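Listing S7. Sequence submitted for prediction.
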Amino acid sequence: MSSARQTLLVELYIPYCIREEPFRRQLQLIGSNAEKNAYMEALKRELLSWEGELENYEVPALRLSGGSATVMSPDLLGDLLKTAREILPLMHGAELSVDTQQLTVGTPSLTGLSAGRPNRMELMIRAGSDAELQALGCSHLTQHVNNAILFFNRFHINNYSLSIDLGIPGQTEQSWHNTLHACTIYHPAHIRLQTPEIRDAEGMPDEETRFTWYRHACEYLKENGYIRYAAGDFCLPQHACRYTFEALNGPARLGLGLGAVSMLDGYLTRNTNHPGIYLAHAGDYEKTTAEVYTVETDWRMRDYAEHRLNAPEGLSREDFASLFDCALPESLERELNGRAAKGLVRETQTGFAPSERGLFSAL
């Protein structure tokens, strides 16, 4: 592929889950097998509608997202990934990652997925104790996490990530440390820290406490061989999530599925959140698009800066000038200096870098 092609990240969004969880704001749907299969068919139609339309791009990473994509038919998931491999301009060795629900991990699911040759799994374990999982309203328990990882090992799946929540109702300093310790015992290639999307529920630790625990996590994971390359992302050497790593540079993005967002060819678009409309018209851009905005250069500059400030090394003036053919605009400089006054970033010899509190606030 030509180096002139632009980087494109692809997200195939699957909103279905086993049980709605109160601390997640994203779209969550419960459905019958027939309803879920119909969604998979619609998602494949939308994917196929892009065949031949992305010749100016190359895709380093694709993600089956939503938190629990494997509640869908394994055979249909495998077929969807196989189709993506056939029609998308994937780079050699591209990452194909699947958000995995531990209750669904077993021989049938991993066998069905294998048709699409995914090479990374994201397991959202959320917490290391059953009490905290119940506080989050999760459908799984710690024994299900153990079983899922046993199946990963049995199928020689070494490139997997564990996602854990910081700030659960009832969480303590000791229980947070225990969760971190449990993750390092599993020794995954990647560990992701996240916070519940609702942060003001009764029993949640306050912001200062969460910040202290975040700093402890950074130190503890470093001691155990993990490298922080984004605000909440830690990996063993050479095992960064390619999707997350590439996203730090604010590339073009193609989102497929209910409510999915794309930034492509100068436009920001969002798909409909209405299941009936999506199922009936998936693949028909005009009928499934709910919002369209023209992406101005100023917006792209801010989007790039925001993504770079999720990385410890931060925003380089030289890289910014190379990408946009101009220096940082005065308005963006003022905004960054305002963040510096709040202790969220600091000015460096080469640009701006996030502080520890700035990285914490990006979770």
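Caption to Listing S7: primary sequence and predicted structure tokens for the chain studied. The two ends are 35 Å apart (CA to CA). The longest strand covers residues 90-100.
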